[in-house]
Amino acid sequence: MKKIVIFAGTTEGRALSDMLAKEKTEHTVCVATEYGRSLMDEGPYTRIRTGRMDRAQMAGFLAELAGDEGAFVIDATHPYASEATGNIKSAAAEAGVEYIRVVRDRDDKVPETVRAFDDMSGCAKAVDETEGNILLTTGSKELAKYLENVSDGTRARTYVRILPSPESLDMCLSNGIEPEHVIAMQGPFCREMNKAVIKQFGIRHLITKDSGAAGGFAEKIEAAAEAGVQVYVISRPCAEEGVSVSEAIRLVTGKDAGSEKKDISITLIGIGPGGAGCLTSGAEDVLAECDIVFGAGRLLQGISHPRKYDMYLADEIIPVLEKEQKTDAAIVFSGDTGFSSGAKKMLKALKNWRSDIGICVMPGISSFSYLAAALQVSYDDACLVSLHGKNTEPDLYKLAEKVRYSSKTFVLISGEKDIPRIAKKLKSSGIEGYMAVGTNLSYEDEKITKMSFAQALEYSGAGLACLLIVNDCPCRRPLIRVIKDDELIREKTPMTKECIRHESIIRMGIREDDVVFDIGGGTGSVAIEAAMQDPGVRVFTIEKDAGAAGLIQENVKKAGTDNVTVLEGDAADLLPGMEKPDCVFIGGSGGRLRDIVAAIRAKGSGIRFVINAVTLETVNETWDIIREYGAEDEEAVMISVSCAQTAGSYHMLRAQNPVWIFSFTL
Hints:
Blueprint (H helix, E strand, L loop, with lengths): L3 E4 L3 H12 L4 E5 L2 H5 L7 E5 L4 H8 L9 E4 L6 H14 L2 E4 L13 E3 L2 H9 L4 E4 L6 H6 L3 H5 L1 E5 L3 H9 L7 E3 L6 H10 L2 E7 L7 H11 L2 E5 L10 H9 L10 E7 L10 H9 L2 E4 L1 H4 L7 E3 L3 H9 L4 E7 L9 H11 L4 E5 L4 H9 L7 E4 L6 H12 L3 E5 L5 H11 L4 E7 L7 E6 H4 L8 E7 L26 H11 L6 E5 L5 H8 L5 E6 L2 H14 L4 E5 L2 H4 L8 E4 L6 H9 L6 E6 L2 H14 L2 E8 L2 E6 L2 E6 L3 E7 L1
Parallel strand pairs: 1-2, 1-4, 2-3, 4-5, 6-11, 7-8, 7-10, 8-9, 10-11, 12-15, 12-16, 13-14, 13-15, 17-18, 22-23, 22-25, 23-24, 25-26
Antiparallel strand pairs: 18-21, 19-20, 19-21, 26-30, 27-30, 28-29
Helix pairs in contact: 1-11, 3-4, 9-10, 17-18
């Protein structure tokens, strides 16, 4: 008989145990706490061991498995439990037992507004500089480290969400967290529950870990975005290699997870804007023949079926499907399944749940195509944008940049309150045109209203809406975006000149959605030109001189580059609390070049550096840094520029200081 040990304490660990029990496979589950034990079902095939173990204790516990060719150790501990994983792996190797690591999927796309940190210390220090209530959802183990790095005032505005276990409660109370600031609940939580907690406690900042789908990470992000809350994420310790829950079951038992249940089929259906007339005949046939229909209440109103469930989240729907022995289910989504639809996330969740079930996706009529038809315009030359659930100021800036270069832009919005904000951003960006607002499309009270941007500032309509924005004079997108020196306000502040600036930015190799640091901002010329390359680029420019920092703000406002953030202070002091950049420009270091490079390199590898040097001392120091760090792709060029200036009826060359441009990757 196979000897199987699961180190659990997570959703994946419980799922593994349940699956093995259903396969009548004996196994032992190790959990650290009594609370973890209470979540498990002990039975004829499941034995539970409670209590924390260090590496030596684990090795002793696994010694009885030594020499058994059918033995397995399955590590289903939390993605952040790096110490536990290291101990389990070492103990399994010592016992000569096959080790399997079950890994949790990361989210494909985390909004760029989220601030990421390598550890709790840096995150806590960043939050300590803010105002407003804080929701800490990283668990009681991170609490002490958080409190070490925040002030008493920040402690007083912090709410802690923990597991409802005596151990976690004691840790909160012993660390001085007031009882009314402790939220003891068992997750994961749906988006609505997260929003309710955020609203109840007036939360403005949310700290979380990248806990994946099983930990409800996406639901936290969505709730925070809708509530306008800033999210701070503690990054996972490292990128792990491992297998999914279903693959672990296959490796251990030789059978696919749920192999006895191959009789569930699911169809994801796009039903258009929502009116019954938008259903395709194929969708009507599926809905008439299926056993169960899931969807948001609004979408189910026009569907006649004896078994309708007002559900649209995977963690609500899957438990219902688990109880069904044989079923054909349909899940309906508004619009088209291929554009900003919940069908994308649902499809991933269903495949993670059961890889063997049949899933079909049926497209629907998008709001874009419906509105285009109603307006009798084409959209083959239009730009398509979704602001649904992502309507922050940076999102509005990116929309304005898309509208600037497109004659037609269709926009999905979060609600009617977005319309005046969009109009304000377009007007402030100097764009001329109008918008057509389609509300309650396909319903009896459908309405399409054309208005200027000025009129849209006063819009107060209600209902489900999407937009067509028409730009009367779209710009032609420049292939290389630069800014001239005379376009900047300079006064007496040092500035990286045009030719040097252009070459430095080229050598940074900036890509879409990159995070760029500009150290020693000066006039902001490099930060602004870097930001102009793509609206998705986020630039943080650091300047320690208060006057220069104010000047950068003026230039940023003049250039309209809303994706530039100006930070005043010493770079070496500010950098530890910032996220990892993709590329860094250092134009001035205040004599702390080594400290600056070390602080950035500590955030990870693969970061592109460009350093400008005008003194021989800086040149030598940069060469030393390149050698000491073993930099890759290093290049160095010295550029000397002379500009022609008039002198009476003649033109004479006036030389600028020669500049060394170093570029390398650490």
